[in-house]
Specification:
The chain is 27% helix and 26% strand. The chain has helices at 28-32, 54-67, 76-89, 159-171, 214-226, 237-241, 274-288, and strands at residues 8-11, 14-17, 36-37, 40-45, 48-51, 95-102, 117-123, 134-138, 176-180, 186-189, 193-198, 201-204, 230-232, 245-250, 254-261, 264-265. Helix 2 packs across helix 3. It binds 4'-deoxy-4'-aminopyridoxal-5'-phosphate.
């Protein structure tokens, strides 16, 4: 599904087929989850394939690597260059890119290592939760206290929490889970940030207990440009249940409208919501390539 026999993967400075990538069975990433990853999307534009906000993604990637003390020898520019090269070699226009920085053999519980391994894969991937509105539940699985775990980077091990929440939500017939932080505020879905609309104003949880998404930032930039007020404030389950509309924002889900939360329908039709307007704008921007062209409506 993610690759064919001739798909090329960037692996430690070379472009090779997936079966040529050798991962050490004692890699600390496999055993303990000490690795970092990113998720980027490339869009086919009139100027060829363009990766949306590639620099911001790789800056976050390097920051997360530093947090986990995993050495990374490449600059943001180089990582962006490898990514475009990968798309070209695989003749991909619209694609999802998945860089992963993983650890060598290390069975100890320290991050100390002289090198790490980098792979970047790319494949075609539709919107993660599909093109329809989604039905969500607030998971009993909370996100970890940021004092226990650095949650602002995409660190592999953190995602077992999200896998549990999503798997359990799916088993109950929902599309995905919303998660609360350790204080009981709804902060985001398992893989995307949350925006809630009430009385023509958008609300989104502040930084601190969320992964500060690049799509979230883009939504706030678009909203500013369109004169839509965005308030960063903690969101209680009650506030969400009683909201007019809500949507998820993330690279994999792009902008996905929410139909129901815990089987309670939100008030507005999606087509009448600010989220719908922003989703259209986001598509235009992403498929037009950077820099943003605000003249597009
Ligand atoms: N939260 C989590 C937990 C995520 O994994 C992602 C996807 N990276 C997001 C939010 C959205 O971030 P972005 O918009 O940068 O993709």
């Amino acid at each position: 599904m993610y690759y064919a026999s001739d798909t090329l993967i960037f692996s430690d400075g070379e472009f090779v087929t997936a079966d040529q990538v050798k991962i050490d069975p004692f890699s600390q990433t496999l055993h303990y989850g000490n690795g970092v990853f990113e998720g980027l999307r490339a869009y086919q534009t009139d100027h060829g394939s363009r990766i949306f906000k590639a620099h911001a993604h790789y800056e976050r990637f390097i920051q997360a690597a530093q947090t986990m003390q995993l050495p990374i020898d490449y600059s943001v520019e180089e990582l962006v260059g490898f990514s475009y090269d990968l798309l070209e070699r695989n003749q991909l226009g619209d694609a999802y890119l998945r860089p992963l920085l993983y650890a060598p053999a290390n069975m100890s519980l320290t991050s100390t290592t002289h090198h790490s391994h980098l792979m970047i894969g790319a494949f075609q991937w539709g919107k993660l939760l599909g093109d329809n509105l989604v039905h969500l539940t607030i998971s009993p699985r909370r996100k970890p206290d940021p004092l226990a775990f650095p949650i602002e980077g995409k660190i592999c091990g953190l995602y077992v929490n999200n896998i549990l929440a999503t798997t359990e939500a799916r088993a109950q017939g929902f599309n995905d889970a919303l998660m609360m932080d350790h204080e009981g505020y709804v902060v985001q879905s398992a893989g995307a940030n949350l925006f809630v609309e009430k009385d023509e104003v958008l609300y989104t949880p502040p930084r601190g207990n969320i992964l500060p998404g690049i799509t979230r930032e883009t939504v706030m930039e678009m909203a500013r440009e369109m004169g839509i007020r965005v308030v960063k404030q903690p969101i209680t389950p009650e506030f969400l249940y009683e909201s007019d509309a809500a949507f998820l924002a993330g690279t994999a889900v792009e902008i996905t409208g929410i139909a129901t939360v815990d089987r309670k329908p939100l008030t507005y039709h999606w087509e009448d919501s600010l989220g719908h307007l922003l989703a259209r704008k986001y598509r235009q921007i992403a498929t037009h390539g950077e820099p943003f062209k605000w003249t597009l409506i």
